[in-house]
Amino acid sequence: MERVADANAQFYSAIENGDIDLMQAVWAEEHDAPDIVCVNPGWPLLRGRTEIMRAWSLIMANVTYIQYVLTETHIGVAGDIAMVTCEENVLTAEDDSPGFVAGGQVVTTNLFVDTEQGWRLWSHHASPVLMEEDEEGEGTPDA
Amino acid sequence: MERVADANAQFYSAIENGDIDLMQAVWAEEHDAPDIVCVNPGWPLLRGRTEIMRAWSLIMANVTYIQYVLTETHIGVAGDIAMVTCEENVLTAEDDSPGFVAGGQVVTTNLFVDTEQGWRLWSHHASPVLMEEDEEGEGTPDA
């Protein structure tokens, strides 16, 4: 669990520090996981290291300051696979930075695979919460 | 691969047919997977069978016609876990149905766990594509 939490923290540290080398290291190699995928909030699905690293390079080049505060973090492990779910609360100096929903709430599922080099990212899927809290039916009586 | 594809098809069949019993059967039991999660497009993250089934019941009660055309479907298997990624092209008669981005493009990661009863859903994360195609850097020269 702790090693998974560390791997998850490294991923956000890579974004916050604009560290593309760390970002490369965080993700699984093609032989560790069958098909790595990345969905940033509001983005289409990106597949494979080349496309995903190009996107992160582009984001890092355009964002001067970004900080993540993760809440509601849960870790579930099933064999060699771990799923981390959390809410990303994003603070950024670039409110018009491309592809990021700044100030808004984002929910995330991060999937890690246990490799010889430690837990590595297989999938990152982050999406904006667009609906009002009470629309999901919480607090309303059953129909 | 084929059994995973079948399990994935059953999930969408459950939605299309408003079949809550099938929806219950598609998802993993708590003892099969540590923490099942569901994110519908623009929704917050839902955890656990009770919350997830309540949401699907609500959706099924409000949507009279819905059809999914899946494109770009990829299946990756790592041990007892399979990840299905795809684009959901959603046709619905209810353009103002709660929580669904009708007519828009949705990208999805579905995570399945291999159980004694077959492949069962551990996580469904679907999110709206809000940016223009060319914003992701495709077709633009490297900076």
Could you explain how this protein is built, in words?
The C terminus of chain A is likely disordered. Chain A has 3 helices and 6 strands; from the N terminus they run ααββαββββ. Chain A has a single domain, classed as Nuclear Transport Factor 2, Chain: A (Roll), CATH 3.10.450. With 143 residues, chain A is an alpha+beta fold. The radius of gyration of chain A is 16 Å and the shape is globular. At the A-B interface, strand 2, helix 3, strand 3, strand 4 and strand 5 of A face strand 2, helix 3, strand 3, strand 4 and strand 5 of B.
Question: Top keywords for this entry?
Answer:
homodimer; 143 residues; alpha+beta; Nuclear Transport Factor 2, Chain: A; six-stranded mixed beta sheet; 3 helices
Which oligomeric state applies? homodimer
Tally of discrete structural domains of chain A? 1
State the strand order across the main sheet of chain A: 2-1-6-5-4-3
Query: The CATH topology of chain A is what?
Result: Nuclear Transport Factor 2, Chain: A
Largest interface, Cβ cutoff 8 Å? A-B, 50 and 50 residues
Largest sheet of chain A: 6 strands, mixed
Mean pLDDT of chain A: 87
Order of helices and strands of chain A: HHEEHEEEE
- Give the radius of gyration of chain A: 16 Å
Number of helices of chain A: 3
CATH architecture field of chain A: Roll
* Approximate shape of chain A: globular
- The count of DSSP E runs of length 2 or more, i.e. the number of strands of chain A, is 6
Task: Give the C-level CATH assignment of chain A.
Answer: Alpha Beta
Distance between the termini of chain A: 39 Å
Poorly predicted runs of chain A: 135-143
